[in-house]
Amino acid sequence: MADEPAKVIYRRRGRCELVHARLRNLGLDRPLARGLRKLAHEMTGFALAMNILTAHRLRRAALA
Asked: The pTM is what?
């Protein structure tokens, strides 16, 4: 982790791990649907929900 490219990779990995941790905490660590199309819909819904929750959290922090 001493050189700059490794630090960039580590930061990107941290963002992904946060999303996966939230999935696990919500009980969504295993897909509920079968099939690529249904899974894509499920993950799109999760991504939308996470974006809404993040926007709400950032707005609340900006007002404080």
From this structure: 0.61
Task: Assess contact for 41 and 32: CB atoms under 8 A.
Answer: no
Identity (one letter) of the amino acid at 20?
H
- Distance (Å, whole) CA 25 – CA 13: 18
The length of the chain, given as a count of residues: 64
Q: Give residue 58's Cα distance to chain centre.
A: 15
Quickly tell me which residue has 């993950």 as its tokens: 43
pLDDT digits (tens, 9 = 90+) for 2-42: 788 888 888 888 777 887 888 788 777 788 889 999 989 98
Q: Are 31 and 25 in contact (CB under 8 A)?
A: no
